[in-house]
Amino acid sequence: MEAAEDLLCLENVEVVYDEVILVLRGLSMEVPKGKITALLGANGAGKSTLLKAISGLLPVEKGEVTRGSIRYQGTNITRRQPSDIVASGIFQVMEGRRIIQDMTVVENLRLGAFSKPRSDIAGNIERVFEYFPVLRERTGLAGYLSGGEQQMLAIGRALMAEPKLVLMDEPSMGLSPVLVQEVFGIIERLNKELGVTILLVEQNANIALSIANRGYVMEQGKIVLDGAAQELKENEDVKAFYLGGGERTGFKNLKSFKRRKRWL
Fold it and tell me: Residue 254: exposed, middle, or buried by beta-carbon count in 10 A (0-12, 13-18, 19+)?
């Protein structure tokens, strides 16, 4: 059962694609309210599948949650429609931005506000421009934006929904180191200034853990390690696997590794 401060709680979640391919294998985790939680793992570990399970997008890819529960603010949302999940306060920023390239910046932003009253849209657009002033200057089609600007637009579109929880899938992908720092600085501001809870899936483990409060490590569809972000940064296996340093010993042999019964 989730603690009072947990906004999102997954318990023993199992996800299957095409009725035969098991991707998530009894995964459990908690996302504390008002915090940034980082989710680390190699390609194919199941991180994007986890986000799609939360946001209700699995059926689009012939996937389904076959076991366990996903609870948000104490309510079971395991099989709710994506539109209902967005309306409840969860918005996913997809891997690769997924903006509509033949629409303008403002038109893309308006798409993020489909669940909000029309009277709120202008004010929300102005708020996005305050966080991303460069977008105010871009009046042409979104397809002509740089990679960094497209990522800003994707995050801005999420803000239009006035979310309580934002699921971010690889926001650093394809960006230069300078732009990565800028985008992550904005993510941190959104958390601190607006109180938005963030679940961050990111290959750049160093920068993800530098802004996160808590972190989880996934392997083969399971959580194998979790803890405070600073503790994970100092963990020798996390250093070896994800931070480019330390001596690799394997998560299963760690003294600090605590396999919970619910992970088995």
Answer: middle
Question: Using CA atoms, how far apart are residues 208 and 229, in angstroms rounded to an integer?
Answer: 9
Structure-token pair, residue 74: 């104490």
Residues 6+ apart with CB under 8 A from 77: 54, 56, 70, 71, 84, 85, 88, 90
Beta carbons of 111 and 99 less than 8 angstroms apart: no
Q: Which residue has the tokens 């949302």?
A: 77
| Strand ranges in 2-104 using DSSP code E only, listed in sequence order | 6-17, 21-32, 36-41, 63-72, 75-76, 90-93
Q: CB 176: neighbour CB atoms within 10 A?
A: 12
What pLDDT shows up at residue 255?
A: 43
Residue-by-residue DSSP string for 162-219: --SEEEEE-TTTT--HHHHHHHHHHHHHHHHHH--EEEEE-S-HHHHHHH-SEEEEEE
Give the separation between CA 203 and CA 174, rounded to whole angstroms.
Answer: 11
Summarised one tens digit per residue, pLDDT across range 90-102 is 999 988 778 899 9
What pLDDT does residue 245 have? Answer: 60
In angstroms, the CA 65 to CA 59 distance is: 9
Taking the C-alpha atoms of residue 12 and residue 90, their distance in angstroms, rounded to an integer, is 21
**Look-up of token digits 């871009």:** 138
Q: Please state, as a whole number, how many other Cβ atoms lie within 10 Å of the Cβ of residue 258.
A: 11
Spatial separation of the C-alpha atoms in residues 208 and 237, rounded to whole Å: 16
